[in-house]
Amino acid sequence: MRGLYVGRFQPFHKGHERVVDDIMDDVDEVVVAVGSAQKSHTLRNPFTAGERVSMITKALEDRDETVYAIPVEDLNRNAVWTTHVRSMCPPFETVYSNNPLIVRLFEEDDVEVRECVLFERDRFSGRVIRERMRDGGDWRALVPDEVEKVVDEVDGVRRLRDLDADDY
Ligand code: NAP
After folding, report:
1. Which ligand 1 atom sits nearest the alpha carbon of residue 97?
2. Which of 1, 30, 49, 124 has the most neighbouring CB atoms within 10 Å?
3. How far apart are CA 42 and CA 48, in angstroms?
4. Element (H or E) spanning 52, and its range?
5. Domain tally for the chain?
6. What residues does the Cytidyltransferase-like domain cover (predicted)?
């Protein structure tokens, strides 16, 4: 059985990692859909789809279960988004989300949706991590070691600061 977990993962952090580990208790394989794949180089979406795929693949490569990280671009039409997701991903039976729109769209498509709550939400938050990168705070403790390496490899902190300087 395969489960789908959708997010933007800007960046993939320890809270997301914990959600994937919890999903693995339920299913044999996990499909991580990297949403808003067309977005990058903005304060809210600093990392490209390829960079996010690399973060997720490396952070989870030591797991026994197979994880597929698949970029999924946004669509202007919510009504056909689930079909779009299906067209990009390996087949899945269950969706894990607590995003109300995603729950609604998959339930209307007769897919089983299970709640997944982010671990230590106050600490592990994409927004907090991006702010710390920009402001010089400690973001490294909030992401898996492999994600830290990807951010450094692409000079991600400098990118965020340059975007901020341009007031995007
Ligand atoms: P999001 O917009 O990336 O995140 C919304 C908020 O939920 C963020 O603060 C996020 O925190 C948080 N969050 C993520 N996983 C969570 C969890 N397990 N428990 C509690 N909070 C969680 O939304 P998303 O749900 O992560 O990603 C949805 C993706 O689907 C987006 O890329 C969206 O554009 C796409 N989508 C597209 C369409 C369309 O194109 N028509 C329709 C539906 C959805 P973090 O920042 O810490 O992750």
Report:
1. 18
2. 30
3. 10
4. helix 49-59
5. 1
6. 4-113
Query: CA angle at residue 86 from 85 to 89, to 5 degrees?
Result: 85
Ligand 1: which of 99, 103, 116, 147 to mutate, most ligand atoms within 8 Å of CB?
99
Centroid of ligand 1 to alpha carbon of 47 (angstroms) = 15
The tokens for 36 are 């808003």
My answer on whether omega of the bond before 11 falls inside 30° of 0, hence cis, is: yes
CATH of the domain at 13: 3.40.50.620
pLDDT in tens, 54-82: 999 999 999 999 999 999 999 999 999 99
What gap in Å lies between CA 94 and CA 77, rounded to an integer?
Answer: 22
Give me the pLDDT at residue 91, please: 98
DSSP annotation of 121 reads T
So what's the pLDDT on residue 127?
96
